[in-house]
Specification:
The protein has about 130 residues and is mostly helical. The chain has five helices and no strands.
Amino acid sequence: MMLNSDTVELDIPPTHSETESGFSDCGGGAGPDGAGPGGPGGGQARGLEPGEPGRKDLQHLSREERRRRRRATAKYRTAHATRERIRVEAFNLAFAELRKLLPTLPPDKKLSKIEILRLAICYISYLNHVLDV
């Protein structure tokens, strides 16, 4: 099991670096030009829409609300969609490999995932029975 920052819950207040780096997509921290809230950006952090909260507005939010806002960014959604696509491809590949091991007539018959699992269970039971005899 892989751990990431979302799986560990600690009750410590956010540090200055966590506020800047962890919430840069939500308006926390300064942009590459050094313009943060109150800086040359006219009071708005880089990448914020008018009326969107700046860093000071994020500090009073609960950890869960900050996480929810961070996950609402386009960058996060794109990365999540990519990870999910890779996971689903690996899942489908594993089913295809399992399918190749199962005898059916015709051999290239298309089976659903549940049919593959049920057929695998029956085939394993059959092989156990053959070994016991």
